[in-house]
Amino acid sequence: MEPKYVSLEMRDYIVSMGAETVNWCMQCGLCTNLCPWRLVPGETSEKFNIRHMQRLGQMGMEGFEDEHILFACTTCSMCQSNCPRGVKIVDNVRAMRASIVGAGMAPANLRPILGSAHANGNPWSGPREKRTAWQQGLEVPTFGPDTEYFLFVCCHSCYDPRSTKVAQSIVKLLKAAGISFGVIGNEESCCGESMRKLGDEELFQKLAQSNIELFNAKGVKKIITTSPHCLWTFTQEYPELGGRWEVIHYTQVLAQCVQDGRLKLSKDGSKKVAFHDPCYLGRHSGVFDAPRQLLENAVDGGTVELSRSRELSLCCAGGGGRIWAEVPMGERFGELRVTDAIDKGAKVLATACPYCMNMLIDACNSLGKQEQLEIAELSELLAANL
Amino acid sequence: MSDVTNGHRSILVVGGGMSGLSAALEAAEAGLPVYIVEKEPYLGGRVARMNKYFPKLCPPSCGLEINFRRIKNNPLVRFFTMAEVTKISGVPGDFDVTVKLAPRYVNEKCTGCGVCAEAAETEISNPFDYGLSKVKAAYLPHEFAFPMRYVLAPQVIGTAEAEKIRAACPYGAVDLDMQEKTFDLKVGAVVWATGWKPYDASKIAYYGAGRFQNVISNVVMERLASFNGPTQGRIVRPSDGAAVQKVAFVQCAGSRDENHLPYCSGICCLASLKQATYVLDQNPEASVTIFYIDIRALGKYEDFYAKVQKDARVRFVKGKAGEISENAETGQVTVQVEDQETGSILREGFDLVVLATGMVPSTADDKVPAEVTYDENGFLLPAQPSAGIVPAGCVKRPVDVASSVQDATAAALKAIQAMVRR
Q1: Alpha-carbon separation of residue A264 from A302, A314, B101, B411 (angstroms)
Q2: Residue A32 and residue B322: Cβ atoms within 8 Å?
């Protein structure tokens, strides 16, 4: 066996990048066993062991910088939520990535993504002036001094043609509910959640500062997000940078409106619907009931729970920057979700996150199950029943 | 009742388990009048449901019998079953205590003959077996119950069946008009020894307890192994009653886990080592795997650990078990774990998985009706604001039976001191 070198300097550097809890780990291995990678075969599954990766971080040892290891984690928080020592595993992953990406060694496939976020304020290579193109044909109010909520639309739903329907549906629903809301427009930048998870701390700080200055200058007090990722970073990461607003996800606002009788949904369709909990809405933010309440109010064919749901929900694999990863067929978590939904008799698999929608559609297509299962964003189902 | 003895020199012991019995008897044998108040219809507590003690592997019935005889022989000990303390006020040497007595519907004329149970038709889930078996609505809490007296389940009261049960009793022991009642006691000190509850393993969602029949907790294992248990002592799979060949023990099921019980429950390692011997004694061909973070066998218990470790049929795997899954057709349960000695991921099927669940103090939910102080997990702190309220046993910290007895003896002395130091 070759000797291995321990570097306390490297360890301290990783800790200083945000892995404050890496030394709390007692090497029990629960994280590795609850990791969604255990559910699929393949090279990444064999190489990536989150417990071992953190051990390398603890010791400042080489080996974690392999792309199969360092960038495998989807930051789904299944391990972190159950860690017996309360180790902030997702922060540790982020810090270990930052120690490599910060030194200018981002993997080649991620460079265009990070570059676009730098240049255009979005990771999708969309021109900044096209950020509001999704609004065409819809009268979307502009946020002003008298507007109650600022609607922050995820970059994915601004630029991805399929995802723009999510933004449009949410606008229709908020209007129907009589909510006072508006968007700011082209000056908005990506929330930066995934950029930070990829380890580009500098880029995240730049995006966050730009948003905080913009939102505060416009007098924003309350925010509705379309994506759970924006929700999470706005509530968990922005406050210490000076961004302090009341932030909620669209499903929470709408569920409240349905409860108050402000939003009336007609029950429609005889298809059975299963709900996929987005990690950043569920485990990360604790919102499990709002989307289910909405579904119950809009679906006639009944709902069904997937075998892994709520706190134990299985990740779509799109978090932590994995939405940009190339994963061979047969190794995609989304395929397990699609198969499970079909096994459970669902005709529609709904979710409440643009990334999840994206990943589940890919999985459904790669399995060739489009005829058997429709993937929908919850807002689309609701808007169809207005 | 408060005037039967010198109230200011008597001690109230709350809880009739091993700690409570010990504290009461030690104080009574030092010459003080003692009252025991027990919630269940029998004395003996959790210990009565155990198969064997570690490390000597002797049955607890023996020690309990001795204690019950000490009670019978000592006129200074009075006890109330199906009773709870609802209020404590006053100062050391002069406490006023309110006790609530639930109706048993069977009076002291009962001889334990069992004719009432024959007359009863309704069956209820047997709490003594953690619901693994059923008993008639007129039942003896367990075979060696002390007091040896039947109980009527409240479900049948007011029905024709209850009348039938009453009529069947040849001794006139069934009293359907019994009501809940409360009474006061004047005592000089209180020993609080209400013990513990097993951690609800179904809260550890990824282990599947409550969903998978062949994933059981260690307290259930004690019942399976006990000859007065639901299977007459045969350790079998709850799913189909088949004998077990491969058994896994999952240590720290809830303990040492900030999401569940942040503390080490102290006894579960020894309990699993002991239960491994149950399995192998019954079936020499069986094998046992123990998944652990660390084996905590302190002091002299190290010898017991070493003894079990020597047995080639027992395998120790260092690693906290992750997800447990079930094959719904065969009932086999698969444990997934990362072996920390090799770094490899194991997926192994077992007939039965025993979760080594930890101890939760009863005081986490059922509070003392007086001003007392708890730690963040609901354990009573050793030093209380009133010197006259003395915690003993597992309400203070998770301990084994021997330590409970020692702690209870010390508590009896503290209670006596609290009265004479006025």
Answers
A1: 18, 31, 54, 64
A2: yes
CA–CA distance, A253 with A175 (Å, rounded to integer): 12
User: Is the separation of the CB atoms in A16 and A65 below 8 Å?
Assistant: no
| Helical (H) or strand (E) element with B85 | strand B83-91
One domain for residues A116 and A230:
yes
Question: Which residue, among A373, A369, A370, has the nearest Cα to A347 in the 3D structure?
Answer: A373
Amino acid making up residue B374: Y
E strands, chain A, where? Answer: 149-152, 181-182, 222-225, 246-249, 273-276, 303-304, 348-351, 374-377
Statement to judge: residues A131 and A95 lie in one domain: no
Which tokens is A371 given? 């005829």
Do A248 and A288 fall into the same domain? no
In angstroms, the CA A45 to CA A27 distance is: 19
Q: Do B206 and A82 lie within an 8 Å CB cutoff?
A: yes
Could you say which of A28, A49, A84 has the minimum Cβ distance to residue B258?
A84
Q: Do B293 and A26 touch (CB under 8 A)?
A: yes
Query: Do A143 and A232 contact (CB within 8 A), yes or no?
Result: no
Q: How far is A381 from chain B (nearest CA, A)?
A: 31
Nearest by CB to residue A33, choosing from B252, B256, B322, is B322
Cα B319 to chain centroid distance, Å, stands at: 29
Instruction: Say whether B156 sits in a helix, a strand or coil.
Output: helix
Q: Number of folded domains in chain A? A: 3
Q: How far apart are CA A195 and CA A174, in angstroms?
A: 29
Burial of B210 (0-12, 13-18, 19+ CB in 10 A): middle
DSSP string, A156-169: HHHH-TTTHHHHHH
CA-to-CA separations, B379 to A97, A153, B72, B202, in angstroms, rounded? 42, 49, 32, 22
The domains located in chain B, with CATH, are: 7-101+180-197+360-420 (3.50.50.60), 115-168 (no CATH), 200-357 (3.50.50.60)
Mind telling me how many Å the CA of B275 is from chain A's nearest CA?
23
A82, part of any domain: yes
Which burial class, exposed, middle or buried, applies to A169 when counting CB atoms under 10 A from its CB (0-12, 13-18, 19+)? buried
Q: Where are the alpha helices (DSSP H) in A60-199?
A: 67-70, 78-82, 89-101, 111-120, 155-159, 164-176, 193-197
Cβ(A34)–Cβ(B323) under 8 Å? yes
Domain range for A38 is 8-101
The values of phi and psi at residue B291, to 5°, are -95, 125
Instruction: Answer yes or no: do A113 and A247 share one domain.
Output: yes
d(CA A51, CA A28): 8
Q: Does A239 lie in the same domain as A272?
A: no
Reference A334, options A320, A347, A323, A346; nearest CA is A323
pLDDT tens string, chain B, 422 residues long: the values are: 434 444 578 999 999 999 999 999 999 999 999 999 999 999 999 999 999 999 999 999 999 999 999 999 999 999 999 999 999 999 999 999 999 999 999 999 999 999 999 999 999 999 999 999 999 999 999 999 999 999 999 999 999 999 999 999 999 999 999 999 999 999 999 999 999 999 999 999 999 999 999 999 999 999 999 999 999 999 999 999 999 999 999 999 999 999 999 999 999 999 999 999 999 999 999 999 999 999 999 999 999 999 999 999 999 999 999 999 999 999 999 999 999 999 999 999 999 999 999 999 999 999 999 999 999 999 999 999 999 999 999 999 999 999 999 999 999 999 999 988 65
**Which residue of chain A has the CA closest to B335?**
A33
CA-CA-CA-CA dihedral for B344, B345, B346, B352, to nearest 10: 140
CB count, 10 Å around CB of B303?
Answer: 11
- Give dist(CA B77, CA B75) in Å, integer: 5
